[in-house]
Amino acid sequence: MKKQSGIHYLREHREAASTRPVPPEVARIRDTVVAGLGDLLQGAFDAVDDSLFELANNSRSNNEQNRYFEAMREIRIKRKGVERHFQNAVARFFATPPVTGQVRNEEASRPTNADSLSLVGDDDLEEQVALNAMVSKAKAHFQGPLLQLQARFTEVYPDASETAPVNPMAPEHLCSAFVEAIQTLEIQIRERLIVLKQFDRYVVSNLGMLLDEANRILIQAGIIPNFRYHGKTGQQKAATTKAGEPSGAAPEQQSSYQPSAEDSVLFEQIRQMLAQQRANSGMPTRRADPSVRVIGGQELMNLLGALPAQQMWPESGDLSSGEPVSVDLRQVIQGLITRNAAQGEKTAALSEVDEDLINLVSMLFEFILDDYNLSSPVQVLISRLQIPILKVVIKDKSFFSKATHPARKLLNSLARAGIGWSSSDEKSRDKLYDQIHTVVQRILNEFDGDISLFETLNQEFEQFLERENRKASLVEQRTRESERGRIKSQKAQEAVDRLLKEKVARYDLPESVHDILVHGWSRVMFLAYLRDDAEHRWQETAKVVDDLIWCLHPHEEDEERDQWVRVVPGLLKTLRAGLEEVSYNANRLDQMMGQLKHELADAFRTNSSIKARKEPEPVQEDTVSLHSKAEYQQELDDAAIAEFVTQLDKLEIGHWVEFSLVNGTSFRCKLSAIIDEADCFVFVNRMGLKVIEKTRVELAHEMRRGRLTLLEQGALIDRALNAMVGSLRSKTA
């Protein structure tokens, strides 16, 4: 593949600086997009580095491993240049945007035959296939925002028209710019495809937030503010607000969610159980009464709409203060009916359907407020949403049946995000808590029956979570790698110390020999242990210790003395090479090797022997008794925690837990890694930083003492509905 020289980057800077001026709103979008793509690209390159390291670590040969390490080195050296090239290219798109689809149409119009395909190399073809797949996926996934942007940008640029539309942020332009930028990387096709895969995963898949931001800026500038896009037919048009329509109900704000008749099936089943429960309890069945006026539907919505938002606020005016509040919805609505009843009018009452809805929402929030998996501060905030959710279910009963219902999705998102929030966290400085608080506040202030508000808020909240999780996942990955390395080093040191202690403790070795083994060769053994999976040198380094000690023993038989003569030269050579590999002090090494040669020669010449240490004194009976008691106690402990160890075996990476401390405080963290070598569990907080590490046995003891709680991971509303249905079934059985 043709590579570009470093001079090309200098020319790019001059070109980027000399482009013609663009409208202020486009300049604002350009700066936001270039900066945002730069941040996303950094995450992509970090992931490329991690992927290549993993492949190198799992390589089957040295050649393959070297190939991946060389690719890592090449990418690290040229990474900044690639990022700069890509960002400059994107900036130029905003100055002189290419006609959207022009390049791809030209390529499609070229004749394709066996001769033309034979001119394309296999590597180029693979890269082109990856590029086309990436572009096609992005255009399908972001079809709506892209069409809106194309219409608005075409309106902004004077040279553009409906027959020649422009969109500087079209996926084909961004992806082609990146493919051009990575041509400078001298890597093979497999590594190049890894780079493209991570670009797709970290950059292209996250274009949505940049597209939405660009649309928002153009809408604020008054460029086709009321754009209507019909996703099913692929048709779009600019729509102006008609007379008589509410000015605030912009078409793009209308919810794409449309409930179907089948969505209310679960609600009807629950109603049947409620009816059976009333019959079992002897409650009279409601009959039509001409003196009673039944209210419901829109009239009930209007009554609830008259409630001020502050109804769900504490006296202090702060949503996050106080305790979770369970509202008596039935009493609130009855008060509204009584207060709004006209003089001399028939007695007003709720329909049986609406009464069932009120009961269900009350039961739902009873579960939510009793759910230990929600942290208390987040529970307080969600408790403020009881009346808005009642309005939602009155308008759309599919809330109970449809997992994709906007309000249900938002509640699940808030609960999922809040599971890792600890009471000890600082509310005023925590972005997550502030975001949840803002969402609840907006629902209380803005919800007027239009369910699309929940859809909008959920999209914004998910985008926020995606940004936060991306940062946290990078930190967590570094934390995990660091802990694996630390624990592996710790295990290596323990193994070296244990082996040397076992072998050296048997004999009174000469000081020079003891020194070279304990303070020199131990480093070689440590390194060999760490590399053992790849190089298998651990057993060789241990054999050197055995050979050295054997050479210091007396050897009277001719066969043994001949073997000694054969072993010693190689032994000395191996010792020196190993110590040089670990950068042992050169002057000290020469001195130690000289002393060692002298000790070996003296042992061979005089046939003297290293002295074996005295056998340890026999253990007293009371010591044996203590050991027996300790072993018996250990057996009892093992039996006591066996049940909890079984529970821990089901604990998976990413699972949240809560630790309770002796002083009464608690904190929540997520299982990030299980390091098998040490049977060690590493936990991190929401930011990806290490919080605590414990062995399986230590965790089991914490569970037995009630200081460790495994938190449920399922969707909040799903768990609440399951519990509610289970409770109703048990009562009607």
Automatic annotation (TrEMBL):
Pfam families: DUF1631 (PF07793). Residues 1-23, 235-261 are annotated as: Disordered. This is DUF1631 domain-containing protein. Residues 252-261 have a biased composition (Polar residues). It comes from Marinobacter vinifirmus.
